[in-house]
Every structure is written in structure tokens, then in C-alpha cells.
Design brief:
With about 400 residues, this protein is of the alpha/beta class. The chain has 2 domains: about 5-75 and about 115-180 and about 295-380, 3-Layer(bba) Sandwich (FAD/NAD(P)-binding domain), CATH 3.50.50; about 185-295. It is built from 9 helices and 17 strands. The protein has helices at about 15-25, 50-60, 65-75, 115-120, 170-175, 260-270, 280, 325-345, 350-380, and strands at about 5-10, 30-35, 45-50, 75, 80-85, 90-95, 110, 130, 135-140, 145-150, 160, 180-195, 205-210, 220-225, 235-240, 290-295, 310. The strands form 4 sheets. The chain has a 7-stranded mixed sheet with strand order 6-5-13-14-15-12-16. Helix 1 (about 15-25) packs parallel to helix 4 and helix 2 (about 50-60) packs parallel to helix 8. The model has no long low-confidence stretch (mean pLDDT about 90). This is FAD-binding domain-containing protein. InterPro entries: FAD-bd (IPR002938), FAD/NAD-bd_sf (IPR036188). Keywords: FAD, Flavoprotein, Monooxygenase, Oxidoreductase.
């Protein structure tokens, strides 16, 4: 790495780590500040479906060998494509051919968030500072420093990239409060079970929906991959979502994991068809975790006066609902774009963040709008920017 001032990155999530990979390959120094104590500090969340755009962005950043390792960890599902089913009767209600969701080789490509994070972190570990919670920044005469929750400050960097997710303090500061994340009121539970629990479904991507509840609909979505079906060491995951008010998180505490989350999931499906019961009866209770369904301003990424030395990526700038599965795919496009502009500039240069933000706003605003529109019909959510609560 060169002796130039490093690019400072707050947050060690997917978009931050992929940006770090791009900087590493460009020989541009960087430092990552992650609030958690390690990558295994908390649950890694649900499985991600990768779009053509997402895969292309990742491939443009990683070297060929690393991308091959990444690709080998991805599941590739063909089978029946996407199938919607009635949770009570067990009957199919909708079917979409696999081509509609496929991103490469006619297959639907997905990967566990934790596996994705491990690959993106390869070669970057020594540049990560753990238990460093960034709450803001200060500009200096020739750079920027990050401010941590304990009152200490980072070394001076040439630039700061806020990638610390929906609660990003960097996003709020650089945008002057224009970047907002709204609480949709909808909640979810992530669960996992041995592959044997999924055999009753077959291969494909499935959503199972229960519309009979008086308090609102609840559903799960899962991806069943045939190449791992008979491997007892593998677990498949499912993601449960509920309309506002259906899933109640105890004390609104999203750090709760394990049996409490598992028991609530089981209580919500007690009337479901027997073919779906193994997903819950056999679930690994320790892996169950709650999550909040949030969304950025539905009308798109707002504009703010550009600060040449500070910008934001991923959920910090465009949080999305899980509807459509495009949040992570948009985040890795941020990493690829900003990394490319920094490589071409040879590191920080005035104008880099402005160019990035101009292009990012176009594709990210389209993605947020698509995600929100789908969530309105899927989750029954509605964001009123004048009255809805922010996170």
C-alpha cells in the first residue's frame, strides 16, 4: 500500500468490505472501523439472491481467483423457478419460470450473508479496527477524521465513506438530515433448519403465504438448492415477514436471538399445512433472529450539498425492504462504482464523491422505488414522509 492518507470506511458490512477489496487491488490505503467485536458477534441474517447487476459488480471488483471462491460458495437453483403457495391448504397459487429470477447460466444464484462477508474480508482483516463505533466526523485542513462513541478520534484520512447501515450517523451528518430511514412497522424473523426439513418442497424458490390471520398476513420465503439437499452438515434458511403488528418483537429489542424468536415463529404457523411444518419443527433455535423492515425515502435518494471528502454507500444511503431482493445488489454496485472512480483518480481527488453520488442516485432511486412499491402490496406498508417514524 502507498504511504498516502488512507480512505476511512465506517462499518464492516458487505458494501464496505467490497469497497475495501477494490481499494486493496488499486493499492489505495484504507482503514475500516467496525462497531462489532468480530464478524461472529451477531447473527449474519438471511440468504441473499444475486441479480445480474449484483454479480457483475462483484466480479468487476474481485480478482479472478477470489471471485471463483465466491462463485463456488453460491447456490445455483433451477428447478421450478419461483412458486407461491397457500400456507393453509398447501396448494400452489402462482408460478414463475426460473428465467424471471435467474442471473447467470439460467440459474437463480444466492449466497448466505455470512459467507459473502467472509470472502469480501479476505486480505482486508489487518486493516479492520474492531469495536469502533463511528458517530460522526470532523474535517481537517487536508483531510477528515472519524469520531467514535467513546470520544476518541481516528487517524486522519483523505476521505471518509459511511457504510454503517440504516443507523448511519455519517449519513445524517453529511446530508444535513436529508437522508432518512423510515420504520415501515413490518417485522421479520430469520430461521434455519437442516436440509431434510425442506424435502417436501423440492427444488426452487418458494414463498408460503397465510392470509387467514385477522391481524394481517404472514409469509416465508426460502430457496431450496438440490446440490446440497443430501448434505447433513448444511442448513437452509427461511425468512419470515409479517404485515405491521403481526410479528411482535419483545421490548422492540432486535438483539434478541434464539428461542424467543423461534417460539414466536412457531406460534405464527401452528395452523399451517403439514408439508411446511418441518421447516419450523426442526429449526435450529439458536439461529433464529428478529429484523426490522425499513425503507429510505420512497421517492428516491435525495440530493444534499456535496462534501468532497465524505460520502455514503449501501444501506446508509438507500435502505430497502426485502421485497424484490435488490438491496444488497444495489449496495455492491455502490462499492464497484466508487472503487472504480477512486482507482481512476489514483485515490482521493476533488470531484470523486460528486461523480459517484450523481450516478448512484439514478440507479439507487429506481431500486428504492421498486422495493417500496413491491412492499406496499406484499407487506401492506405505507410510508407518509410527513408522519411516519424514522429509525
Amino acid at each position: 500500500m502507498s504511504a498516502a492518507k488512507p480512505i476511512l470506511i465506517s462499518g464492516g458490512g458487505l458494501s464496505s468490505l467490497l469497497l475495501a477489496q477494490s481499494l486493496r487491488r488499486s493499492n489505495i490505503p484504507f482503514k475500516i472501523f467496525e462497531r462489532d467485536a468480530s464478524f461472529t458477534f451477531r447473527a449474519q441474517g438471511y440468504r441473499l439472491r444475486l441479480s445480474t447487476e449484483g454479480l457483475e459488480a462483484i466480479e468487476s471488483v474481485l480478482d479472478s481467483q477470489t471471485f471463483q471462491r465466491f462463485w463456488d460458495k453460491c447456490g445455483k437453483t433451477g428447478g421450478n423457478g419461483f412458486t407461491a403457495m397457500d400456507a393453509i391448504t398447501g396448494e400452489e397459487t402462482e408460478h414463475t419460470a426460473p428465467e424471471a429470477l435467474s442471473s447467470r447460466g439460467g440459474k437463480i444464484v444466492g449466497i448466505a450473508r455470512g459467507d459473502m462477508r467472509k470472502v469480501f474480508a479476505e486480505g482486508c482483516e489487518e486493516h479492520i479496527e474492531w469495536a469502533k463505533n463511528v458517530i460522526g466526523y470532523e474535517l481537517t485542513d487536508s483531510g477528515v477524521v472519524a469520531i467514535f462513541s467513546d470520544g476518541s478520534k481516528s487517524i486522519e484520512g483523505s476521505m471518509l465513506v459511511g457504510g454503517e447501515g440504516i443507523y448511519s450517523k455519517v449519513a445524517k451528518q453529511v446530508s444535513g438530515g436529508r437522508l432518512k430511514v423510515y420504520d415501515t412497522g413490518a417485522r421479520g424473523i430469520h430461521g434455519q433448519a437442516p436440509t431434510s426439513a425442506f424435502k417436501g418442497l423440492g427444488e426452487g424458490v418458494f414463498t408460503v403465504r397465510d392470509k387467514t390471520r385477522p391481524d394481517g398476513a404472514v409469509f416465508i420465503i426460502t430457496n431450496v438448492r438440490p446440490d446440497q439437499m443430501d448434505d447433513p452438515s448444511v442448513e437452509f434458511g427461511w425468512t419470515m415477514g409479517g404485515q405491521p403488528g403481526v410479528i411482535q418483537v419483545p421490548n422492540d429489542d432486535y438483539s434478541i436471538v434464539g428461542k424467543q424468536a423461534a417460539d414466536i415463529a412457531k406460534s405464527l404457523v401452528k395452523n399451517w399445512h403439514p408439508r411446511f411444518k418441518p421447516l419450523f419443527d426442526e429449526m435450529i433455535e439458536s439461529e433464529a433472529a428478529f429484523w426490522k423492515i425499513t425503507c429510505s425515502t420512497p421517492s428516491g435518494v435525495p440530493e444534499w450539498p456535496n462534501e468532497p471528502r465524505v460520502t455514503v454507500i449501501g444501506d446508509a444511503v438507500h435502505s430497502m425492504t426485502p421485497a424484490g431482493g435488490i438491496g444488497a445488489n444495489t449496495a455492491v454496485q455502490d462499492s464497484a462504482l466508487l472503487g472504480k472512480l477512486l482507482r481512476e483518480a489514483g485515490g482521493y481527488k476533488p470531484g470523486v464523491t460528486a461523480a459517484y453520488e450523481q450516478e448512484m442516485r439514478i440507479y439507487a432511486s429506481k431500486a428504492v422505488h421498486q422495493s417500496y412499491t413491491t412492499a406496499v402490496s406484499s407487506f401492506g406498508v405505507k410510508i407518509d414522509e410527513a408522519t411516519s417514524a424514522t429509525v
